[in-house]
């Protein structure tokens, strides 16, 4: 049976990205994304719960992150979950769940507010900038009239 590991998150950057060069041809951009869910508790009060995700993008996408993302930016991210193992300052082994990003869309629009910016990788592995157009389709207004003939129902 095939396996599948994919996560999609929409949220806001919690801090400016930290970009590091691993080698001459490898770069990584790390940042955190806050995803807030709102709900109503038993007493009828509106509550919010925020989950934080660590996100990493590599190479060409790290360049895009470095150039365009700042703290507070709304983003749409697709990727896969990965467990990172590290040793803390006390020598204890720790685990951290992180998103290895594969797709990135800047939300909130450009200055003209015409949609987000979608940074998908092409088949050649190069990052391409595709702007999604936000064409709003408005439903025709419902026709309501009082000349319906009283209590006559069509069924």
TrEMBL record:
<dbReference type="Pfam" id="PF00436">
    <property type="entry name" value="SSB"/>
</dbReference>
<dbReference type="InterPro" id="IPR012340">
    <property type="entry name" value="NA-bd_OB-fold"/>
</dbReference>
<dbReference type="InterPro" id="IPR011344">
    <property type="entry name" value="ssDNA-bd"/>
</dbReference>
<dbReference type="GO" id="GO:0009295">
    <property type="term" value="C:nucleoid"/>
</dbReference>
<dbReference type="GO" id="GO:0003697">
    <property type="term" value="F:single-stranded DNA binding"/>
</dbReference>
<comment type="subunit">
    <text>Homotetramer.</text>
</comment>
<feature type="region of interest" description="Disordered">
    <location>
        <begin position="106"/>
        <end position="155"/>
    </location>
</feature>
<keyword id="KW-0238">DNA-binding</keyword>
<feature type="compositionally biased region" description="Polar residues">
    <location>
        <begin position="115"/>
        <end position="147"/>
    </location>
</feature>
<dbReference type="GO" id="GO:0006260">
    <property type="term" value="P:DNA replication"/>
</dbReference>
<dbReference type="InterPro" id="IPR000424">
    <property type="entry name" value="Primosome_PriB/ssb"/>
</dbReference>
<protein>
    <recommendedName>
        <fullName>Single-stranded DNA-binding protein</fullName>
    </recommendedName>
</protein>
